[in-house]
Fold:
Amino acid sequence: MPDIVGVRFKMAGKVYYFDPAGIELKVYDHVVVQTARGVELGQVTIAPKQILAADITAELKSIVRKATEEDLKRAQDYAAKENFALTECNKIVLRMNLPMKLVIAEYNLDGSRLTFYFTADERVDFRELVRELTSFFKSRIELRQIGPRDQAKMIGGMGRCGRLLCCSSYLTEFNPVSIKMAKEQDLPLDPMKISGVCGRLQCCLAYESSMYHDIKAEMPKRGQRVSTPSGDGWITGIYPLKESVMVDLDSQTRAEFPVAQIKVIDAPVVIPPKITETTHLGDTATDHKPVMNAPPPAAPVNQPETPAGAVIEKSVVIKPPVALEIKPNALPPAVVAPAAPLHNQATPENLPPTIPTEAPKLEEKPQA
Structure:
């Protein structure tokens, strides 16, 4: 059986397997290996072990040697030049007005290859950029476009939980994450609350997804009719971590019960209907409030059950206020009298008779 050894080139990076070539190695040892990018410096994460030949799908490359002090010093020197290379490349990108954002720059162990990682919203033609970078750094230049998740993994940062990002601390690969996982855990579907620093769904949504799926598979469903120690009712809420359910009882009360204390009644699953309130024009309904998402009451024996998803309209009929009778004599004549038509000009002929048409004449007193 052949021997293999696991080597990692970056923190939380993918593990690659090599042939130890008879070199005594242990975990955390630094080794020099030959890869597609040239000579690389890696660290042993899996000690040499034997595996079946059928498990090897490709030819294994051999470990070149165990890293020496000179190899470690050379790696540190080139790592110090990466910030300078990133700055100079960014200047050239701005001068060429290319729609790309540089992330990091990496040298291999002997400095023969310089790799730039960048992000872009569209495809970028960087052929002219590669020619200018090659003449400036005197090395083979490679440009790699990455996505938002890889960018967060390379740069690092703090998550919403206050800890280091999972992708930059221990995740070696990205597993698919879907919005269905958030729904299954009853999390808010606000993108600001379930997205990470990369702008994608948080990787931690997949950590407990299988556990929620297994627990909910053994629990009753929302909308089922159950029997509880306090009476029958309908399930309106499910709490997988506490293994309990919220039940709206027929006695118009709501209570939480452990799953072990309830029994499902053989009845079809009914989605609790929405109860709305309809108020007629002229009504002043202030004491009647609609009950939202209330469970349907137990259907009588001689009456058909309410169909699933039905909307029950609760009509509140309130008597209109009684009109007060106003006597004409109770108000001044000018107020009771009807107003003249708007399209006609007021004349003495169309004015009400209660208003005098002309001023009274004053009688002259004879002089003494």
About this structure: The helical segments are 69-96, 127-137, 148-155, 166-169, 179-184, 191-194, 209-217, 333-336. The CA atoms of residues 197 and 302 lie 59 Å apart. The radius of gyration is 41 Å.
